[in-house]
Design brief:
Layout: E1 2-11, H1 14-22, H2 25-30, E2 35-39, E3 51-58, E4 61-73, E5 77-84, E6 89-100, E7 103-113, H3 117-122, H4 124-148
Antiparallel strand pairs: 1-7, 2-3, 3-4, 4-5, 5-6, 6-7
Length: 149
């Protein structure tokens, strides 16, 4: 099992940060420009047990994701687990912590198994690079949008 983690400190109220992540319209905004995301169930409001369907295109490769909302604890935790994805296993935890003085910590933890077994593990450096690039972008845009509004 591989693990990726990204943390950022954002000047905001924890409820505001959590609500931002619950609003899936923001997913398109915080997705890097080289990836197109389409919500296949557009009126989706995350609730424990519900399944979100997404269509992504990156490097001309279309992929359908189905992710189950595994845990939702307002306003501190949102966990989704992929039922269908390019990975053998994918679990994404969004962790929100009020750290005081008007700041929150946004932490994303991704636990995953690369596709294609041993071959996928050999090329995990590419996956790790793409995760770092994606979550750096997501955190940067989230911080800009949350702190100015």
């Amino acid at each position: 099992m591989k693990r990726y983690e990204k943390k950022s400190r954002i000047k905001c109220d924890i409820d505001k940060l959590f609500d931002f992540h619950l609003d899936l319209n923001n997913l398109k905004t915080i997705t890097p420009k080289d990836t197109k995301v389409t919500l296949l169930n557009e009126m989706f409001v995350p609730k424990e047990g519900d399944v979100l369907r997404l269509h992504t295109v990156k490097n001309f490769i279309p992929i359908v994701w189905e992710v189950k909302i595994d845990e939702l604890v307002y306003p501190t935790l949102l966990v989704d687990v992929a039922l269908k994805s390019p990975f053998s296993f994918w679990k994404h935890s969004h962790i929100f912590t009020d750290v005081g003085d008007g700041y929150c910590e946004l932490k994303d933890v991704v636990e995953y198994k690369p596709p294609f077994g041993v071959l996928g593990n050999l090329f995990n450096f590419v996956i790790a690079y793409e995760l770092k690039k994606m979550f750096n972008y997501r955190h940067e845009i989230t911080k800009k949008l949350i702190e100015i509004s």
